[in-house]
Design brief:
2 domains; Aspartate Aminotransferase, domain 2; alpha/beta; seven-stranded mixed β-sheet; four-stranded mixed β-sheet; binds pyridoxal-5'-phosphate; Aspartate Aminotransferase, domain 1
């Protein structure tokens, strides 16, 4: 079907979209309305950790939809109980609250920290966050985010989110006062351009927050669920945070996210937190299928190996084209272009015939790569060959 035959104007305009309608996906590949295929390095924005429509998610959805879709969050259901058990057994956390999106999980983390502050820190409520951080698109999470311009976009902001600089401990220390209840950060800033917090910084931040008896919250919506080669990115630095949020990969493509905390922090009482769809068995059954794959023997070590392979391939490309190198953890990586070529590469990549490549440019001088965690060497090689040709062509 031709794109012009669709009437897309009933959809609210929120972002410029290319004239494509995706019909099917399988693994690293998407197919559009004309049957053209694309090698997909966005994967629903780091969401499809096992690629498009993997068999285990299809099976979980079919089986669970035949059994029970939503008894309401007022009752226990089996998949939510099991998934919470798997998450706590494989992390330093004891309690889980499921949500539908990363932003909602972060809202929950903010509420939990403020509640803890009311109970244990004389009403302290400020949460120190970081410049260039991204925590979501609700009013509170936009206020917590350090995206340039977001402080005035829907003024007035939710107050209480002073901003420090990533990997600069003094900038955090300077903001700590009687009002501070927590520090919240992404262990690898994703939307900010794939900027890892250093191991030293994470360790120093843990020591500093302990010293001041304030909470450390990690937003692992993008960095969690195997993306960095560890199940959770905080494990890269050998620390134990107080609160963690998960999203994106946890549902492998379906809307599922989570707020986790240690037992001592779990201070919500009835009435504080809830939500109609939270922890419904349809999506938590998918979460179980996903985490079982991630925990299968050899899976996470193969993420590390593929991350290393992608890193080397990007470095080689960088040398060849005189770019500025690459960075990241595991299979969350960025190529530093040195020029504002990103948007052009994204567009040209889609246009390659007979198959296109879907790339992402979170900043004009950067490309970000978020493949499925089970991406193959051949699929990395194919993308690198295409990117190599695009760079040669665009430099002319
Ligand atoms: C994507 C993202 C969010 C927001 O998640 P949504 O599911 O889009 O609400 C929050 N934090 C980080 C680090 C993210 O990458």
């Amino acid at each position: 079907m031709e794109f012009s035959q669709y009437n897309v104007n009933a959809l609210m305009y929120i972002t410029p979209r290319p004239d494509l309608v995706f019909i099917e996906g399988s693994g690293m590949w998407l197919t559009d309305q004309n049957g053209k295929r694309y090698l997909d390095y966005l994967q629903g924005w780091a969401v499809n950790c096992l690629g498009h429509s993997p068999q285990c998610i299809q099976d979980a959805l079919v089986a669970q939809s035949k059994k029970l879709i939503n008894p309401s969050p007022a009752f226990y259901n089996e998949p939510a109980i099991e998934l919470a058990g798997l998450l706590t057994a494989n992390s330093c956390f004891d309690r889980v609250f499921f949500t539908n999106s990363g932003a909602e999980a972060n809202e929950g983390a903010i509420k939990l920290a403020r509640k803890w502050g009311q109970l244990h820190k004389a009403g302290a409520f400020e949460i120190i966050t970081f410049d260039h951080s991204f925590h979501g698109r609700t009013l509170a999470t936009m206020s917590a985010s350090g995206k340039p311009g977001w402080d005035t976009m829907f003024a007035p902001q939710v107050t209480g989110f002073p901003k420090a600089d990533l990997n600069d401990l003094a900038s955090v220390e300077q903001l700590i006062s009687d009002k501070t209840v927590a520090v919240m950060l992404e262990p690898v800033q994703g939307e900010g351009g794939v900027i890892p917090a250093s191991r030293e910084f994470m360790q120093a931040l843990r020591a500093l927050t302990k010293k001041h008896n304030i909470l450390l919250i990690v937003d692992e919506v993008q960095s969690g669920m195997g993306r960095t080669g560890e199940l959770f990115a905080y494990q890269l630095s050998g620390i134990e945070p107080d609160i963690m949020t998960l999203g994106k990969g946890i549902g492998g493509g379906v809307p599922l996210a989570a707020l986790l905390c240690r037992e001592e922090i779990a201070c919500f009482v009835p009435g504080d937190q809830g939500g109609t769809y939270n922890g419904n068995p349809l999506v938590t059954a998918v979460g179980i299928a996903v985490i079982r794959q991630l925990l299968a023997p050899g899976f996470l070590s193969s993420v590390k190996e593929m991350g290393h392979y992608l890193s080397q391939a990007l470095l080689t490309l960088s040398h060849k084209h005189g770019l500025e190198g690459e960075r990241g953890e595991g299979l969350l990586r960025a190529l530093k272009l040195g020029h504002e070529l990103g948007p052009k590469l994204v567009e040209a990549g889609r246009g390659v015939e007979p198959v296109g490549v879907l790339l992402n440019s979170p900043r004009p001088d950067l490309l970000r790569f978020m493949p499925a965690l089970n991406v193959s060497v051949a699929e990395i090689d194919q993308m690198i060959v295409m990117l190599d040709a695009l760079l040669t062509q665009l430099k002319k």
